Amino acid sequence: MIALRLPSVPIPDAVAALIGSQIPEHVLDAEIEATNQVYVIGLCRKAQYQEAREYALASLARANKTLAQFNPKLVVRGAA
Questions:
Q1: What span, in angstroms and rounded, lies between the C-alpha atoms of 69 and 75?
Q2: Cα 21–24–30 angle (5° rounding)?
Q3: What local confidence, expressed as pLDDT, does residue 9 receive?
Q4: What are the backbone angles phi and psi of residue 52, rounded to the nearest 5°?
């Protein structure tokens, strides 16, 4: 069987806006929050930043709870 590799096609801005308008605003906010917290968790590796890391993990868990309610596939996985 021959497998065809299709080139990645960029999504036009109008289509992305249409897709984004179908998702509730609180879910979009939760996605942004989860992504930001994963970044912060990556910065807080040393023991002196343990409190900040725990706060970021709690924020990530709250954001993931909102995302999972909307669609379980949207959950953001953090670097543990």
A1: 9
A2: 120
A3: 81
A4: -65, -40
pLDDT at 3: 63
Question: Residue 2, SS3?
Answer: coil
Distance of alpha carbon 9 from alpha carbon 29, whole angstroms = 26
- Measured CA to CA, the distance from residue 67 to residue 74 in angstroms comes to 6
**C-alpha gyration radius of the chain:** 17
Nearest Cα neighbor of 38 from 79, 74, 1 is 79
CA distance 44 to 59: 14
Predicted confidence (pLDDT) per residue in 38-80, tens digit: 999 999 989 999 999 999 999 999 999 999 999 998 898 865 5
Cα separation of 4 and 53, whole Å? 44
- Burial of 60-73, coded b for 16+ CB within 10 Å and e otherwise, reads beebbebbeeeeee
